[in-house]
Structures are given as structure tokens and as C-alpha cells.
Amino acid sequence: MFKEERTKSHFDWSMLGDIKEGRPNLGNKTTVDTYRLMQFTLRDVLIKHVGVKQSDEIFFEAGEQAGRELYKNVITKKETFNEFIADLQETMKNLGIGLLRIESADMETLTFTLTVAEDLDCSGLPVCDEEICTYDEGFIKGVLSEHTGRNFHVKEIDCWCSGDRVCRFHVKAAEQVA
Ligand SMILES: [Zn+2]
Fold first, then answer.
1. From ligand 1's centre to the CA of 21, what distance in Å?
2. Which percentage of the chain shows pLDDT scores above 70?
3. In 3-state terms, what secondary structure has residue 82?
4. Can you name the residues that pair with 110 across neighbouring β-strands?
5. Spatial separation of the C-alpha atoms in residues 146 and 178, rounded to whole Å
6. Ligand 1 (ion): which residues have CB within 5 A?
7. In this structure, is the dihedral angle defined by the CA atoms of residues 165, 166, 172 and 178, taken in order, positive or negative?
8. Residue 98 contacts residue 119 (beta carbons within 8 Å)
9. Residues 74/81, Cβ–Cβ less than 8 Å
10. Distance, CA 83 to ligand 1 centroid (Å)?
11. pLDDT tens profile 119-166
12. How confident is the model at residue 177, as a pLDDT?
């Protein structure tokens, strides 16, 4: 599973395992601290080893993969864009990822401004003048690309860390297909 070298993804949803069987007492329960401890120590070590730029690329790519896999394995209402977004909002809320809102949408050009409140990755962190939600940028790209078959540019423009109360993302479809 993780001991084979690879040049392309080997990830499969089944790798997440049978949590009911494996954790009969603890189940799916963990804490935001635990999630952040894992992610931030990993990011810290990555930056130490490969630098900020490459670490960001790795986080973005992992987020994109997570978005695509979540779409394929969890999102169920996929008929129309509105149904898909409603299901995505519900799923992100249920999984404790954050509260997604569409602030503006242009369906002609597939250009959106999205916000995520109470974001799992950053809400409550010390303000540091950085937009840090690189993983979320990838995640949004992945989930939208999987639904539309288009490629997207996603950029976080406001973040809890840069002093806002929500994370705000500018999303725009790219020319080329995904
Ligand atoms: Zn953020």
C-alpha cells in the first residue's frame, strides 16, 4: 500500500479501511487538534526538506486528489450543478470540513467566489498575514473538475490567517479540459 514506489497515484477509497471494525469503541471520532497536528507537522517537515513552493504544490495536488475521490465516493446528487453544490455543502458540513457558501457564480464562464467558514484547516489560527489553505484550493479544484470535466484555477484570496473571518476562494474555469 505505502511501500511500493510509484509514479502515479495508487490511492483507493478502500485504503481508508473498515473503521467500524477497526475502532469499535472510538469509531470515526477524532479532534480538530489531531487533524491539524498531523497536517501541520507534515507540512513543516515538507517545507524543511523541499521548501515552501514544492510543499505548496504537494499540498495542492493532495487536496485535488482528495476532492476528486470525495466526489467519486461520497457525493451522490450529481444530476444538476445546484444538486451537486447542495450535496457538497451538506457533505462538507457533515464531515466537519467547513461551511461552504457560494458568494457569486457566473455559470457562463464557470467563475465563482466561494467562502468556507469554520474551515478545518485554518479557522482560529493565529493571524499571520498569509493565505494558508493550499490543500483546500486543491480540494475545490478537484471536486469541481470531477463534476464538470473542466480544469479550474483556484486561489484563496482571504483566509482566517490573513485576518478574515472566512476563507474566500476565487475559482475560474481554465481553457483546457481537465
Ligand atoms: Zn484559509
1. 34
2. 98
3. helix
4. none
5. 8
6. 122, 133, 159, 167
7. positive
8. yes
9. no
10. 25
11. 999 999 999 989 999 999 999 999 999 999 999 999 999 999 999 999
12. 57
Q: How far is it, in rounded angstroms, from Cα 94 to Cα 128?
A: 29
Query: How far, in Å, is the centroid of ligand 1 from the Cα of 25?
Result: 33
Q: What angle do CA 175, 69, 85 make, to 5 degrees?
A: 65
Question: How far away, in angstroms, is 24 Cα from ligand 1 center?
Answer: 34
* pLDDT band per the 50, 70, 90 thresholds, residue 98: very high
| Grid coordinates of 141 | 479544484
- Cα-to-centroid distance, 132 and ligand 1 (Å): 5
**What is the distance in A from the centroid of ligand 1 to the CA of 145?**
21
Percent of the chain, pLDDT > 90?
95
| The predicted structure's pLDDT at residue 36 | 97
Ligand 1 center from residue 49 Cα (angstroms):
24
Give tens-digit pLDDT for 8-46.
999 999 999 999 999 999 999 999 999 999 999 999 999
Burial class (CB in 10 A: 0-12, 13-18, 19+), 87: middle
Q: C-alpha grid cell for residue 61?
A: 495536488
Which strands form 111-117's sheet, in the order they lie side by side?
A: 99-106, 111-117, 166-177, 150-158
